Amino acid sequence: MLEKLLDKDRVILDLKSKNKDDVLKELLAALKLPEDKEKLVYEALKKRESIGSTGIGKGIAIPHTRSLVLDRVYLVVGRSKEGVDFDALDGKPVHLFFLLCAPPQDPGTTYLLTLGKIAHVARKLSKREDYMDIEDPGEFIKYLAKLEEEE
Amino acid sequence: MHPVLEALIALNDLDVMIQELQSPDYREIGFDVEDQIFKLEKARTEIIKKIPEEVLKKYEKLKKKYKRGIAPVIGGVCMNCFSLLPIAMTSEADRNEKLSTCPNCGIFIYWV
């Protein structure tokens, strides 16, 4: 499921941002939305973060939202080698981000299913560190797909 | 984009978020947002200030009827009632620069 949603252009292995707002903007930029749409999705993401960080701990965050301006489900993966302060639950810097955005109408409930899959993969990733060494986006997608398939 | 349309989209996104945070499926994933929804309700109050009273009244009425007050139009089709919108509306260049409703179901529309 994650492999189908991901694209090499939406895997950023060297995020430049140093803070929460900038990292959300950098991830969102990979969607290549017109400025007015991007602004609305960004605001929705910020509102979601305002009620509790999606930084689930162990260096992983899953910012997510729904927005009417989107035409389908989008997934962006970003990695920061330095780590970003994302107000994570464990207070540690976040190195790996999964940005998930979807329209409100989602007949196949792809959004919640994907969110569940990401949380599942994130739990596995929290026990590993080798994802920090992968330098090719295509290889990174395959790595995530393999983790998703593992029981 | 028309400022009221922009505010309606933000309001809808927020309403969807509030609704979803309360669903068991979402909570099962493991995000703990218990007792935090009031923060979104506060944000909702702020957005509402940008919407004229009669528009908001209509939005709330539509929400009661359809569970949403605004719907996207994709490929000329209203995603609330799935009716094809008149070509005259579809071909307008400034479609999102004004506040429009679906001639069939009356829902506010946003052209994706």
Question: Mind explaining what this structure looks like?
Answer:
The complex is a heterodimer of chains A (151) and B (112). Chain A contains five helices and six strands. In chain A, 39% of the residues lie in helices and 20% in strands. Chain A is globular and about 35 Å long. The mean pLDDT of chain A is 91. By secondary structure, chain A is of the alpha/beta class. Chain A has a single domain (2-149), classed as Mannitol-specific EII, Chain A. By secondary structure, chain B is of the alpha+beta class. Chain B contains five helices and four strands. Chain B is globular. At the A-B interface, α3 and α4 of A face α1, α2, α3 and β1 of B.
Please write the CATH class name of chain A.
Alpha Beta
Q: Using CB atoms under 8 Å apart, which protein chain pair has the greatest interface?
A: A-B, 25 and 32 residues
| Largest sheet data of chain B | 4 strands, mixed
| Beta content of chain B | 5-15%
- What fraction strand of chain A? 15-25%
Write the H/E string of chain B, N to C: HHHHEEHEE
| Poorly predicted ranges of chain A | none
Radius of gyration of chain B: 15 Å
Number of domains of chain B: 1
What is the CATH C level class of chain B, in words? Mainly Alpha
Instruction: Please tally the β strands of chain B and state the result.
Output: 4
Name given to the CATH architecture of chain B: Orthogonal Bundle
